[in-house]
Amino acid sequence: MLEANHLSLSFGGLQVINDLSFTVNEGEIVSFIGPNGAGKSATLNLITGVNRPAKGDIRFQGQSIIGWQPHRITALGIARTFQTL
Strand, coil or helix: what is 14? Predict the structure, then answer.
């Protein structure tokens, strides 16, 4: 249903994500866990269209969503929320 293939993202000289791939099948619940700076938020920003990867592809139901505006991705049912204290 959702596939990330060989994603890479850098901010200036800092490599944030390097060759990340994963698949989320229909009905699965998936979470990203790891320490601060592991790339969790950066990955979600790529999926939701906030940032565009330097390399790689993101596909939803077989269609690439790279370059789509965040509001179009949200209309597919893909969104993120922010932690509030």
Answer: strand
